[in-house]
Every structure is written in structure tokens, then in C-alpha cells.
Amino acid sequence: MMHKQKAIQPLPFIIYFITVLSLTISGLVVSVYLAISHYRVYTDIGYSSFCAITKAINCDTVSQSPYSILFGLPIAIWGMYGYTLLLILLFLAFDKRAGIKRLWPTIFFVAFFFSSISVFFAFISTFNIRSYCILCIMTYGVNLSVLFYSWLIQRRFDQTSVFSGLKQDLIFFLVIKKKTSCLILPLVVLALMVWLFLPPYWKMPLPQGSSHIPTGLTEEGHPWIGASYPAMTITEFSDYQCFQCKKMHFYLRELIEKYPGKIRIVHRHFPMDHHFNPVLKEPFHIGSGDMALLAIYALTQNRFWQMNDILFDIGVQKRSFNTKELAEKTGLDFTELAKSRKNPEILKKLQMDIRDGIKAGISGTPAYVINNQVYLGQIPSGAMKEVFN
Predict the structure, then answer these.
(1) Which CATH architecture has domain 210-388?
(2) Cα within 13 Å of Cα(90), Cβ side
(3) In the chain, where are the structural domains located?
(4) Per residue in 243-276, pLDDT tens?
(5) Strand 69-70 and strand 73-74: pairing?
(6) d(CA 109, CA 163)
(7) CB 289 within 8 A of CB 273
(8) Could you tell me which of 93, 100, 79 has the C-alpha nearest to residue 143?
(9) What's the pTM?
């Protein structure tokens, strides 16, 4: 005799509710951390997040990518808004008038939208950025989990389809429209205010024109900017596609402004481009070698610092450079600038910089030489005491 299969008994509704609530709160907390981390990546010269582990697993690399900004705001801030919206919906779903059926179809579609965005950015991380953010992956898991549980709640406690349930949700919103407006409207206003007034710190504005700051060439012919008779000389080896190189260079330029007559920066090229740099065994910052050649040509025409600042901006944003546009912005002859990348004398100067960097023990950028001491990545505050004292 066949026994009838027992129907699956759902857990108490409150268990499912607390699970979704916990997931949403965790997503909000992670988004807040990511927003703070994103800000510090661009503004704190010595910051490195705990999940900057390897080249492939690196939250900072993802933050430095132009894909970390969407519609004029960091993705993490949009995440904060999204999870706050989910919390509001959960609060409304806990209303006695909602019972255990209302608003779960709405939460399902919101979670479906968030999950779709997660899949899109996972694709971007894999094929464009080629690096993963552990905390971003955590939010992807949160979104997919909320999607699953909202579907499960709808299936266990409501026999109607999600589309029919969505129609009922719209009617329910009209019933509680005053309560809904009091919660949703402030969130919308806050989002608009942040969008309008948050300074675009991630753009890292170019330094003010260097026309009033002394510049020149060392005895070896390397460009310098800063004090004519410095208390400290910092030789930087950098790459125009290196985010930290730009961040540190602009920071040092700010120090030159703040402590006039004390600091001199000497610029050397160390492009992490396997076509030029023997340290690299596989493709990395492709094109950074060509950018260095353009900068060296600009030096011969007394336009180095103008070209330097423009190339840092282009390289870090991962934008392809237009030689004609560069010529117009720097006042250089387009034809001569275009030919400079094939000039053997200019290539020889670049090779000398790379060779000197390797001899000094440099294997990555940025790197700095102060009093014959090499510092990789950043300059410790102790090394700058001559300036700050």
C-alpha cells in the first residue's frame, strides 16, 4: 500500500522574515564599508583595504576602476540606497495590515533587479577589471539570497503568482500611502541631495598650473619641479597607467605648494609595459611605454609638466589617448609628436630610466628614491621629517 507523500511544512513566517532582514542589514553594512573604502582609496595617501590581497583579489583595484562610478556616484552609495529601500519595504511588510502575503512580490522584483546588476558587475570584474572585490561578491550573494527567500515566502504563504501579487501590492501601497510616503520621500530627497552636492573626489583634479613653480633639468637631463635649492629631493619612478603613481604624484605636488622651497620632485619613467620593461613577463599596462615616449618628447619641447599631468589623467581613467588631441592641449606639433614614438633617441632615454630603475631594485610602481634609499608604493612619514619639521 502506497503512503501519501507528506506536504512540506513551512517554518514559521517570522523565521523567513528575520532571515531576509538579516541579509539586508548585512548588505547595508557592507555597502557602508565599501563607500568609506572607496573614499579613502582616492583621498588617503597611505590607505590599503584589508581585501587588497593579490592582483586578482583586490577591492582597491575595483575601487580604482572607472566602473566603480555609476551615474555620477560610487556604486557603494547606490548600494546603500538600495538596501535602505529594502529595509523600508520590510518595515512596511511587517505592518499588521500586510499580513504575511503583501509586499513580498515587490521585494522579489526589487531583489531580481539588484541580482541582475550583480551579474552585470561580476561580468565587468571578470572581463574588464580582471580583479575581484570580496565584499562586492558578498553583496552579490546577499542579493541572490534575498531573491531566493522572497520567492520562497511568496510560494509558501501565498498561492497567487508574483505578478498577481504585485498588483495586490500596488493596491496595498495606496492603503498605506501616507506611511509609505513618509519613508520613501526622505530617501529620495537624500539621494538627490547627495547626487547634487557630493564632491567628485574620485576625479582627483589635476594640480594647479605649474607656471609659478620652478622647473628645470638635472645634470643628467631629467625633469624636476619644486624648489630650486631643496631640503629634500625625491626621485619618482612612475607609470602613467598606475593609479597609485598618480595619487602619490599629485600628493607630492600639493606638498610642493604647501612647503615652497623645500621639496623637489625628479621624474623618471618606469612603464609597466612588457613591450618596454624586461621586468614584465606578461601583458600589463599596455600602452604606458608609448605614453612615456610622448612625455619624453614633450620634455624636449619644454612642455613636459603639461603633458605629464594630462597623461596621468588619461592613463588612470583607462582612456585611449588621441595624439592629435594631446598636441592641441600641450601646444605641440602633431606630426612631430606622432613621430616621436619611433624616435630612437627618445627610446634610448626611456630605456635608460628603466635600466636605472632595475639597477636600484625597483620592480613595480610607484617607487621613490630619497637619499639613496628606495621606497616602494609610498613614502613613509619618517622619510619626510626634513620637510615637516
Answers:
(1) 3-Layer(aba) Sandwich (3.40)
(2) 23
(3) 13-201, 210-388
(4) 999 999 999 998 898 888 899 999 999 999 999 9
(5) antiparallel
(6) 10
(7) yes
(8) 79
(9) 0.85
